[in-house]
Give the backbone structure.
Amino acid sequence: MPLKRIHLILRDAGLGSRRHAEEMIRDGRITVNGETIDQPGAMADPEKDHIKVDGKLLRLRDTEKFYYAFNKPRNVVSTMSDPEGRPCVGDLIKAIKKQLFPVGRLDFDAEGLMILTNDGQLSEKLSHPRNKIPRTYMVKVRGRPDEKLLSTIRRGMSLGEGDRLGEVQWTVIKQQKSTTWIKLLLYEGKKNEIKRIFFRLRHPVRKIRRIRFGPIALGKLPVGAWRQLTETEMSKLKALMGKKSS
């Protein structure tokens, strides 16, 4: 097999998106023929070279691809393992018995829809900010922000640390005595983006639940449960990916 960039080998082996694979390389977790690799652009032959991840021999991914919707509970890390020993997605999906990884990270204390797959290319397309895949959230905030204040949630809003909010849509769903539920549609997925939005408005977030990721809806999937994507969902997902990649 011809030489191939190592971050692409890792991606195609089902270890996550290309960006995640690059992070693994920079963290010194990858060796090739016993030598630690720290440059994502390094090359290797996946069939001849001895590639290890965290000391374990890399297995090339099965040709069959799998796709699941998963409802992540609160207080669970959005990774397959956690060096700090916290509960993680990998702990909860062991019963699937397939080499999968989650797409669409959620904060530790957030819940809702994630995609589980072994398709590294799909993961990359869904995750990369340039593709602007819509993500819909139900957000519970403290207090009752009025329309004038909420109108400041718009493209270009400062999130602090030099970050600006991208395209966004919001709708007030329900105002209670001391809290408000807001539906929020985002397209880029910056780190802690939702919490940063409402921190700036002085209405801290109390709960975040993602209810839609691209064309896939959470629906009535129980917390902690998963299901395979339907043929209709896969058709919509592939159509979206084709459109975003054009």
In short: The chain has three domains: 4-57, 67-130+215-245, 134-213.
